[in-house]
Design a protein that fits this description.
This protein is α+β, with helices and mostly antiparallel strands and 83 residues long. The chain contains two helices and three strands; from the N terminus they run ααβββ. The protein has helices at residues 4-7, 23-34; strands at 37-45, 51-62, 68-77.
Length: 83
């Protein structure tokens, strides 16, 4: 329900449901140091205060020297049996 201008430049944390533990995101922000993949199920809140679940995979790519060259996220809807 959000317009683009309401989200551009905002933190992703704006979309987290208030019941979603922030500790997962503390772990995520530590992930680039570990240089690996991090997967979690996230409860997202909509503009009208409904919610849905997403499966998000955060990946850090490094070069041959172990330096971070890119980070990206792939997200998909969560099947009802996972919820």
């Amino acid at each position: 329900g959000y317009e683009d201008h309401e989200l551009v430049g905002e933190s992703f944390l704006k979309l987290l449901h208030p019941t979603m533990p922030k500790v997962f995101f503390d772990m995520l922000y530590e992930n680039p140091v570990k240089k690996d993949k991090f997967i979690m199920v996230i409860k997202i809140i909509t503009k009208d205060r409904r919610y849905f679940w997403m499966l998000s995979e955060y990946i850090t790519k490094t070069n041959n020297f172990g330096e971070i060259i890119t980070q990206y996220n792939r997200s998909t809807a969560v099947s009802s049996y996972i919820v």
